[in-house]
Specification:
Elements lengths: L3 E6 L6 H13 L2 E6 L12 H11 L6 E5 L4 H8 L3 E6 L5 H14 L4 E6 L9 H9 L10 H12 L1
Parallel strand pairs: 1-2, 1-4, 2-3, 4-5
Bound molecules: 4'-phosphopantetheine (PNS).
């Protein structure tokens, strides 16, 4: 079994759906590293990387085998440099499938030693996405049931400041 699994994403912001995947990955692997990467399809982040790191650390503080990091460049190169044999991705309904399938196959072609493992999100989180949280937050709605309380406070601080 792989010792270390990487859970990469934009996490802009991290949601309760992300937390659910992190918690389940933490029961499957000795070490899980949640890693903020750069999605070149997404410009102008909602939260700065430092706030996302703080948010992820706050919501995983009670998970001793979970660490938080960021990386530049290719995910498979980062995974290899960290000695990780597995990349975790969450899947919601069918909407994610085409994109995830394409990226997983590209990553396998780039490095066949790094396996991608998909975890289905819980049904109650299947509608949730960072973009929904961003939209609700920007338009002044109540996003507190979508994110961890510490993350809600960080978003409120960013929007207020
Ligand atoms: O939460 P997201 O936006 O779906 O996360 C996407 C992310 C950051 C994991 C992905 O864009 C990524 O791995 N970026 C690093 C560059 C890379 O390796 N891209 C995939 C190779 S085609």
């Amino acid at each position: 079994m792989a010792e270390l699994a990487i859970y990469p994403g934009s996490f802009d912001p991290p949601t309760l759906g992300h937390l659910d995947v992190i918690e389940r990955a933490a029961t499957l692997f000795p070490q899980v590293r949640v890693a903020i990467g750069m999605n070149s399809g997404k410009q102008a982040p909602f939260l700065p990387v430092e706030s996302r790191l703080r948010a992820l650390r706050a919501m995983t503080v009670n998970l001793p085998n979970v660490s938080v990091d960021q990386f530049d460049g290719l995910l498979v190169q980062y995974a290899k440099a960290q000695g990780a044999g597995v990349i975790i991705r969450g899947l919601r309904l069918t909407a994610d499938f085409d994109y995830e399938f394409q990226i997983a196959l590209a990553n396998r072609r780039l490095d066949p030693d790094v396996e991608t493992l998909f975890l289905m999100t819980k049904w109650e989180h299947s509608y949730l996405s960072s973009s929904i949280v961003r939209e609700v937050a920007r338009l002044g709605g109540d996003y507190s049931s979508f994110v961890h309380p510490e993350v809600a406070a960080i978003i409120a601080g960013e929007l207020g400041g």
